[in-house]
Design goal:
136 residues; mainly alpha; 6 helices; 64% helix; elongated
């Protein structure tokens, strides 16, 4: 699909970027996507630049960046400040690794509780419920 400069309605922009119209409006409210001027008596029009920007935002979200982090990356979009972008990515990577460790601990705890439940069949007190009640 060839996208002509500033010819897209908000619906066409959303379709070209693979999102819905409310996503476009949300990004505009958050300051991630500028609202184009509305010519008198007409509707706002968008171009290829906005399609690429929305796709960039969605790609960054898919790998775990928050909207605040994405806003920081968008300020670096000219590509000349790679060290700043790398710094943001390094912080995100450290955060992801911490969350992975926490998830692994949760997995271990849940696996243990499931095993104890299977071994405790026929007893009055469920090991899972008892363990969670003791934790409160």
């Amino acid at each position: 699909m060839e996208i002509l400069s500033n010819k897209l309605t908000i619906g066409a922009l959303a379709a070209a970027a693979g999102v819905n119209v409310e996503t476009i409006r949300f990004y505009q409210r958050k300051g991630l996507l500028p609202e184009p001027e509305r010519p008198y008596g007409s509707i706002r029009r968008y171009g290829q630049t906005e399609v690429f920007r929305v796709r960039f935002i969605k790609a960054a979200q898919r790998i775990g960046f928050t909207l605040d982090e994405i806003a920081q990356l968008l300020q670096l979009e000219d590509g000349t400040q790679c060290s700043k972008a790398r710094n943001i990515a390094e912080h995100k990577l450290a955060d992801v690794r911490l969350r992975l460790l926490a998830l692994q601990r949760m997995e271990t705890a849940l696996a243990d509780l499931v095993e104890r439940c299977a071994a405790g069949r026929g007893k009055l007190a469920c090991p899972l419920i008892s363990s969670l009640q003791q934790a409160t």
